[in-house]
Amino acid sequence: MAINYNTKAEGMTYTKNDQVYVIKHGIFRVIDFAPVPDEHKIKIHIQNKDYDDIIIPFVDENVKLEQGSIIRVAYIIEKYQGQDKLVCHGYELNSLPVDDAQLQYVGQVSNYILKDQEVDYKFYKERLITYLNIIQDYNLKAFINYILGDFEQRLKTWPAAVTVHHNIKGGLILHTTNVVRNAIYIAKLYSDINLDLVIAGALLHDLCKVYEYNEDGSVSQEGMYKDHITMMVSKLHDYYYRMYTGPSITEVDFQHLCHIVLSHHGKPEWGSAKIPATKEAFIVHQSDYIDTQMYIYHNALKETELFKTNYNKYVGTHIIQTKIAPSQNYDLNS
User: Fold this and answer.
1) Which has more pLDDT, 189 or 319?
2) For residue 75, which phi and psi values (nearest 5 degrees)?
3) Rounded CA gap, 102 and 24, in Å?
4) Which of 19, 32, 119, 172 is the most buried (most CB within 10 A)?
């Protein structure tokens, strides 16, 4: 009931692209799983106290996966989108007993979302409306407002990620508002930027995370197959060519808007479908990156004493507390 697990001993080395990796072993709980279309592989969402990730191993017909199953994984850690990515080199299911200490290490299946903060939805919705109203092009404003209306109910409670950043109730509207704010400030420093498209792209960039993730912060069934970038561009085409009947934006602006969404992760290795090719797309990417990193720094340091350091795997170094945090939460009120 395993594939390659027993032949991938912990401590073995593996070379890929001239980079040497060390095989590690870990025990995880299965959160969800789904077959990969047209391939003899399966996507398995696994979680323990250190990692929450998706692996894509070959199918072992003898392994009967169930949600909540305990699974042992032989893996290496690669960098993907600037973060640690767990890559499966073998797995084993339920062939050995699991002791209480191991179960405690795996943790519970539920409660993905950090419960120490809930976002004031009314406050951030008002901010988003304020930013939307800065758009001067009436047709573009109407188009974006129509799209936002379709996402309003889920924006009240959805997180922006499973782990890493804004993985709290309402984290998506908090992150979106921060990104729009950052983008406006940066764009206004320069005289040759299409501010309307910067705001529009920033408002839309992560909206389809409401389909990529479930409300509890776990990866959705649809999210096992597609990411929010792919979903958003698909929906933009639906709105533009089929659903939306209001005042039309130009084809050029529509394609530019799609490009901003496609490129907002910045680099292919960070999950971006395109590298930003316009100033507007670059500004949205940087605004997104800044807010993501600030959330990581804040949460890593909020309980760290002044001038003490704390290693953070997402930043990749020890980070230093230089100021006593004014609050336990991360928001715009500073």
Assistant:
1) 189
2) -150, 165
3) 16
4) 172
Q: What is the pLDDT of residues 209-239, one digit of tens each?
A: 999 988 887 788 888 888 899 999 999 999 9
- Separation CA 265–CA 271 (nearest Å): 6
CA distances from 275 to 185, 264, 281, 286 (A): 22, 8, 9, 12
Query: Rounded distance, CA 145 to CA 176, Å?
Result: 15
Q: What is the largest CA-CA distance in the chain?
A: 66
Take residue 183 and report the two structure tokens written for it.
């983008």
> If we measure between CA atoms, which residue out of 36, 28, 18, 162 comes closest to residue 90?
28
Residue 198 pLDDT greater than 90, yes or no: yes
Give 48-101 pLDDT, tens digit per residue: 777 778 888 887 776 677 777 788 888 988 876 566 778 888 888 764 445 555
- Inter-residue contact 81 to 265 (CB < 8 Å): yes
The set of long-range contacts for 157-162, using a CB threshold of 8 Å and a minimum separation of 24, is: 157/121, 157/215, 158/209, 158/210, 158/213, 158/215, 159/112, 159/113, 159/209, 159/213, 159/215, 159/217, 160/206, 160/209, 161/209, 161/213, 161/217, 162/52, 162/112, 162/213, 162/217, 162/218, 162/219
Compute CA distances 66 → 30, 94, 154, 309, whole Å.
Answer: 7, 11, 28, 41
For the chain, the C-alpha Rg in angstroms (whole number) is 21
DSSP sequence for 177-198: HHHHHHHHHHHTT-SS--HHHH
Q: What is the pTM of this model?
A: 0.69
Pairing mode of beta strands 114-118, 168-169? parallel
**Cβ contact 50:97 at 8 Å:** no
Report d(CA 259, CA 265) in Å as an integer: 11
